[in-house]
Amino acid sequence: MTHADLADAVLLRACRREPVPHTPVWFMRQAGRSLPEYRKVREGVAMLEACFRPDLVTEITLQPVRRYGVDAAIFFSDIVVPLKAVGVDLDIVPGVGPVVADPIRTPADLDRLPPLTADDVTTVAEGVRQVVGELGPTPLIGFAGAPFTLASYLVEGGPSRNHVRTKALMYGDEATWHALLDRLAGIAGEFLRVQVEAGASAVQLFDSWVGALPLADYRRYVLPHSARALSAVADLGVPRIHFGVGTGELLGAMGEAGAEVVGVDFRVPLDEAARRVGPGRALQGNLDPAAVFAPWPAVAERVRAVLAAADGLEGHVFNLGHGVLPETDPAVLQRVVDLVHASTAH
């Protein structure tokens, strides 16, 4: 299937703000996380190793599409994969997250961040090609971590609650900060481009930690670099989704970064998010991932509330307001997919 063959896919139509037969739905972190078949295929295989094995990537990416009938697949990878590919000494530690052996904090450290080339991620491109070959009419979403979030891991040396070192560098050495984010924008943009050229029909730029910043700081220190990462695929004609966590105050500015779709976390209702983002953008979201642990009548009520808040939007892609939690019951996600499809069919 080429991009042209998939142009009528419901997800892509919604991203382009065109009429759809039903609201499309997919889940962030649907590839793996809560699925028993995922845990089985990952047994004894480290996360990063799995990300560089096309056979595993293909199987894991396809699992939620087979199980749930979602309207898109999200490529199985991790936001630190392109950093690993350019030679950063890091590992994904179970229960912790990405841990960087030698954090990047000075101008000299930037020499350890060379540009990403397609040759660095040939197995990723092969994984995309294999997945697309299996998906048929279902579009594949490629993704990358946004420059701020990648910088946070690199500067802190791992996950951080308060981003103390990140902000100290950002405020205290603006030249080094912008040089770092410029390199990361290039890496993220090329990573997106490789996935689209291998067959992905849409991309998502994840800025997991940028909600730690006030709006003025976002505009000054982050927005130009996120825009550059997204612009790397602007000529390829695929919808771009831009998502961050805790970004209610940043939604308008995030919409300016260039993506056709703004992802909204669960803290801001979609009708209010649309007011903040302004016209000309579709929205994605935004059921609280913890809500699916409630009894089904309560879950269904909240799904319908999301759909009601999205009524009248120019374009809406139903999703959680962040990723699937590992303890989630897959049977509940199945019911969510079915309810969204049934409630919005016309």
What does this structure look like?
- With 346 residues, this protein is an alpha/beta fold.
- The chain is built from 15 helices and nine strands.
Overall number of structural domains:
1
- The strand order across the widest sheet is 1-4-5-6-7-8-9
Q: Can you tell me the CATH class?
A: Alpha Beta
Morphology: globular
Strand content: 5-15%
Structural class: alpha/beta
* Unreliable segments of 5+ consecutive residues: none
For the record, the CATH architecture stands as Alpha-Beta Barrel
Total number of strands: 9
CATH T-level topology: TIM Barrel
- Average of pLDDT: 97
Largest sheet: 7 strands, parallel
Helical run tally? 15
List the helices and strands and how they pair.
Blueprint: H1 10-15, H2 36-42, H3 47-51, H4 54-68, E1 73-74, H5 81-85, E2 90-93, E3 97-100, H6 122-135, E4 140-145, H7 147-156, H8 164-172, H9 174-197, E5 202-207, H10 215-221, H11 223-231, E6 240-244, H12 251-255, E7 261-263, H13 270-277, E8 282-287, H14 296-310, E9 316-320, H15 330-344
Parallel strand pairs: 1-4, 4-5, 5-6, 6-7, 7-8, 8-9
Antiparallel strand pairs: 2-3
Helix pairs in contact: 2-4, 4-6, 7-8, 7-9, 8-9, 9-11, 14-15
